[in-house]
Design goal:
The complex is a heterotetramer of chains A (about 425), B (about 270), C (about 300) and D (about 130).
Chain A lengths: L1 H17 L10 E8 L5 H13 L4 E8 L4 H10 L6 E5 L2 H8 L6 H6 L1 H6 L2 H4 L3 E2 L2 E2 L1 E5 L3 E6 H6 L9 H11 L5 E5 L8 H4 L18 H16 L5 H4 L3 H8 L3 E7 L1 H9 L8 E4 L11 E5 L6 H12 L1 H11 L6 H14 L1 H11 L14 H16 L5 H18 L1
Parallel strand pairs in A: 1-2, 1-3, 8-9
Antiparallel strand pairs in A: 3-11, 4-5, 6-11, 7-9, 7-10
Helix pairs in contact in A: 13-14, 16-17, 17-18, 19-20
Chain B lengths: L10 H26 L19 H9 L2 H31 L5 H11 L8 H11 L5 H5 L6 H12 L3 H9 L4 H12 L1 H17 L2 H6 L8 H12 L4 H35 L1
Helix pairs in contact in B: 1-13, 2-13, 3-7, 3-10, 7-10, 7-13, 8-9, 10-13, 12-13
Chain C lengths: L3 H6 L1 H34 L2 E4 L2 E5 L3 H9 L1 H32 L5 H9 L6 H11 L6 H8 L16 H26 L3 H9 L4 H30 L1 H7 L11 H11 L3 H25 L11
Helix pairs in contact in C: 2-13, 4-5, 4-8, 4-10, 4-12, 5-8, 6-11, 8-10, 10-13, 12-13
Chain lengths: ~425, ~270, ~300, ~130
Amino acid sequence: MQRRQLLKSTAAFSAASALGAPAIAQATKKITFLTWNLVHLEAPLKGWLAGFTKSRPGVEVEWVDKKGPELPAYYQTQLAASTPPDVIDIQGALGLEYAAQGALLDLTPRLGAEAAVKARYEPAYLSNWVFEDKNYMVPYYVSKTLLFWNKTRFKEAGLDKPPASFDEILSAADKIKGGEKTGLLTLNFDWLYWPLMQMNGVDLLTPDLKKATFNTPKAAEVMTRLAEATKSGAINPISWTGRWVEPNDAFATGNVGMLHAHAPAFFWIKGKGPWINGDTLGAAQMPGNWATPNSHGLGISKGSKNPDVAWDFVKYLTDVEVATAFAKIASVLTGSKEVDKAQLARFQKDDPLAFQVLSTQLEHTDKMCGNWRLGNDSRVKDGFWPEFQSAMLGRKDAKTALGDAERRVSRELRRA
Amino acid sequence: MRRAPGSPRHWPRHAIMIAVSFLMLIPFYWVIKTSLTGENIYAWPPRILPVDPHLFNYVDVWYLIPFGRYLLNSTIVTAMAIAGSLLFNVAAGYALTKHFPGRRWIVVLLLSCMLIPFQATIIPAYLITSWLGVLDTWLGVALPLLSTIICIFIFKASFEAVPPSLIDAARVDGLSEWRIVTRILLPLSKSAIATNVILTFIWSWNSFLWPLITIRSPEMQTLPLGLARFLSVMEDTTGALFAFVVLVLIPGLAIFLMAQKEFIRGLTSGATKG
Amino acid sequence: MTSKTTWFQRKRTRELALVVCFLLPSLAIFFLYRILPLGWNAWLSVHAWSPLKAAQFIGLEHYEEMLLDDDVFWQALANTLIFIACSPLAIAAALGIALLVNSDLRGAAVYRTIVFLSYPLMTVAVGIIWRWLYDERGGFFNYVLRSTGVIDQPMKFLQSFDWALPCVILADFWQVLGFYMIILLTGLQSIPQHLYEAARVDGVPARARFFRITLPLLKPSIFLCIVVGILNSFTSFDLVYVMTNGGPGHATELLITYIYKAGFGQTRFDYAAALTVVQFLLLVVLTVIANKLSGGNAGSLERQ
Amino acid sequence: MSRATIRRALGHRFVAVPLALIVVVVAWNVYIAFNDHGIIEGEVTDRTGAPVIGATVVFFERNFIYYEEKQRAVTDAKGHYRFSDMKTHIGQLEARTDDGRKSARRQLRLWFRSQDTEVAPLVVETPRS
């Protein structure tokens, strides 16, 4: 009897475990491509993957897509299990963090060896992922912030051109506000709001990224004015609480004067705002031509079993043919000179307004800010943003907020 | 006032309960209403009744994600979790009715296991799962749910409720322990079974973070992941999202409504006696 | 088969074998998915580690940082405690409902079902639903408040430092209320009726009956509810994650969301591990206290 | 197993509900199988209801959040147009004539992809500018 029970339970257990089929079979040369929030491009993506494997027998590409917020969790666990996706598409400074962690392959030698490939990319965008003088990622699709202005609202307020200075932004916003109407909206995730600080000469860190430099009377003054404007309704509070949908939707309703956002926002608001056309919407640079990039790059995990295939794949994705198709379908700029030239030409013909918007992305690329090459960007961000947000929403006065922020940011910098 | 069986004053209690039910049902109504309304759900003021109601949001959902496939995955995972947890919990529950050295310790151990937040154990859990080689499989997702503490105690309780004389008699007749469980104890603890089934169903059907981490191939995704993926495509801007929410919730509600009698009885016995 | 005597002689050994192989599967799973990870966390919390860097022992530095100069931790802790401290409200409400439903009310079963209906729902979905209810344009609350003229400007519940946490807690109430109610209901039904009859004969007023009979005898069930409430402070991860993701600022940051952020957002798994250990200890302490308050005996979870 | 027990089993909710579901699903798919040639057709008329010949009908398919042109068709002598093999379930139709008259954009939502549909007449009018 006893044996029978033993058998039974062990049998049950082993049966249960047997149900788990072995993990995904490893092909001869298999790479995994992890994309950031591209599910809506499933069909074309599969096509490009097929194109890649067709010309390369014995190579297999697995495609995994994760939503922005979940992607880091996924990638981290994969790293921990030392099965990282070979090629990853990630946004903004995250790439630098992974580089700092030693998760990414240094692409400098490969880029050095293939000058032609390096020459493809817009240097300013390529340099966004230079960490400690090493290239860790290449541009996949790029964008930086610009100022959308609602011409109708401006006319009402007796204005006819976009603001040329911080003061003009605030005064314009103040003139426009009233009732349901507000003057200015900005995206705030990552560091997208930073031009507002930078145009006043406020920088976050010293050039060597060792010390915090933002706790100055000027910064306090700027933040106080922003907070006041927010209180008065000149700046829409969604600027400090919303992420992507809320600010853009609010602007799409048509009763907001200005939207400080990056180019992809245009296609979103165009889809939402029937009022939008060349006569009603203007696209301009922020005063001082400052802009914060929010680009996607392609990197290769150091843990990749087939780095050469991965590199080959990266080149394939950023090569004219595929990149052009991608740019067309996703209506983005790729940071590859040739592709973007064609893309702009196309828009100039079909959609002048979109052309106007996208052109801003390639102008004044020397004036990018809020893209410090930090290995611990997210921690610095978590040190700074909540305090800034509290100040904007009148939770703390600017001075205290800056003080607290400095304490927390410095702590992170010390730890690094 | 509070509880006086047969007291004539029913209507105030009815009034209260109706109010409560109303409040509890509002979210359901609001989301269903939204899922039925047309394009602009942000129009102010929102209507109490859906504006030109239609079901096309549900059509959109169907084509936006491979709904059928996700449904299948969720169903299989849940089925495995339920089957496995039934087997293991019954066994464990029965074992705990026995007296053996260190029993108390095991109980304490189990109870403290309840206090370990799963979100915080993801990395090791992931490593273990990959070590077991069941990543990206149905079993891999179901595994952590194969044994659930609460249910163990519910079974223990309902087994203890069975008169020992019955068991001894069976033993005298020479029934094997396993047979005693299957032939005598289980038929007497239907409600405990129902509870186990439903609780496991709820937990595995709803689990989000774990499948998110362990599943990588698109064709293995479960419904909650569909929710995440869905959000990422559409953001929360159309009634379609809410249509999807409704579609995700329906199976759970259906199961519960069908089995609620046993379920509640089971919880009852579990809660009081164990 | 075996005769009675030998069965008696070999009872103990056989039972032990049986117990072992019946418990093994469950214990194995708990070991793999609960105890091992916890141990891992405990070990990690005194090391400096990231997925690609070899661990090196650093003693209690993480705990030092956490307790001395991590104000986010303290806020998350405070929020978690508030979250837990609010559960008695829900329990009280559930008790009220349970009492009503438990009486000989016609259609009590229907009410019971309705109240419980929100428990089986997917927490992520619940988060989405409630985020929508709080929405300033399409949301239910703003609609009611504005159309009844309580407020004239749309209320940004989840974006407000003062309202966000209560709002999340309310959503949590909505989901667990039914569960509390069922537990209490069962407790009520296990109370022998004759006690009430006797009390009524002696002319004990209803309130006294409630406080002298119902409440004391409900202790075990209430204990269970409290434990569930405590567990909620981390099972509500999905809820917070979807509704506010800890924001605005850290107004709705719970320990569990902070652990997740520290680990996956900031890639500080070692620090997250330390947080985990602290949270675990916190939960243990709270549970023990709850157990003491409810007259020990783990609410008769474990009866000899 | 007697007929009575079978009937009882069928009557049981855990059997009846799934069975009902299966029946519905099968029926629905059969229906789809017979009606998914992706044919979208209709008439273009002017305000008087007279058919408009040679008008261009543009089909915009919804792409993510905005609509983009997918296919064009020209109305025949009876003012009738016909798209075939339209693998979509949501889009917009608009009729244009060479003399600059346009119809309002007609929202088109189908119950399943490439459902055969007969669209109510598109009425072209001279756009007031």
